Amino acid sequence: MALDRWIALVLLSICLLYGYTAWLTMDANLAPFMQRKPIWPSTFPKVLSIFGIVLSLIILLGLEKAEQTVGEIDYRKLHEYKLGQAILILGLMVVYAICLRPIGFLGSTTAFLVLGSFILGERKWLVMFTVSLLTAGIIWYLVQEVLGIFLRPLPFFLGN
Asked: What's the pLDDT tens digit per position in 107-128?
């Protein structure tokens, strides 16, 4: 079995476990007033698990295969791929998750987007900062004001 199918099998098992958690365990402890709402805290995880399961099955069954084989991953040549960038991005994600509370959503998200785009090869600093600030601000506004979920926008020492 090809490397992409092994990865799809692992992702399928993760999505099945995630879906089990979202469908059967997350809604058990909801408050009564939350049970009457059209969107529950488990709605997005349910949708994500369904998409993950469908996409993993598409790869496992080979439905995405076309006539060309140019883009296939050869596990014997992994050293030729940009693994350094992937590892740096994964490390940056961990640092982002750790920095969310002390630095705040706006600062940590902006820094994550700027550093992530730098790792991926973007060198236009004005564009990186502008897009990152706008994206972080829009996401914060949508989550905080539209959805009503509290996100600490600034570092903890600057207050609420």
From this structure: 999 999 999 999 998 899 999 9
